[in-house]
Amino acid sequence: MPFDYExxxxxxxxxxxxxxxxxxxxxxxxxxxxxxQSVFRTDPELANLRGDIYPAVFVRLSNKTEDFEGLGAxxxxxxxxxxxxxxxxxxxxxxxxxxxxxxxxxxxEVQRLAENMEAVFRREFTLSGSALYxxxxxxxxxxxxxxxxxxxxxxxxxxxARYAFQ
Length: 166
Fold this sequence. Notes:
- With 166 residues, the protein is α+β, with helices and mostly antiparallel strands.
- It has helices spanning 5-18, 102-123; strands at residues 38-40, 56-68, 82-97, 133-147, 150-165.
- The radius of gyration is 18 Å and the shape is elongated.
- It starts with a helix and ends with a strand.
- 28% of the residues are buried.
């Protein structure tokens, strides 16, 4: 059976959605002045970036590497298994309207969003059993981008997940 890109990416989205409630620990929106509106399984470049979707989180597959755990045919009657390391880009975007002074609070909001995204994956480290483990590998802060009193700042958390499959 080949690696299932769709269901494994959906497990990442489901983890983020599952921890975006006030009763969850951790809460994806904890400490933010506005709750995360949506978690999308797409590239932010392809999404309709309306003003009412912020803050938003996007999940996309970045890359996958494979190695054999055993020799022989994989899948079906074959007993050999493969291991895959997959990197997901988890992109959080936050928007603030207003003068340049709004940018200072925007930085704090994006840092909190980064902390919350990392906390979700430290808690949901097997992605509901679909992965052997996952962990945030790196975090980069993007922007601000703006003009006309609209500022958007982002965070990119690269999540590495390890899978075994046939």
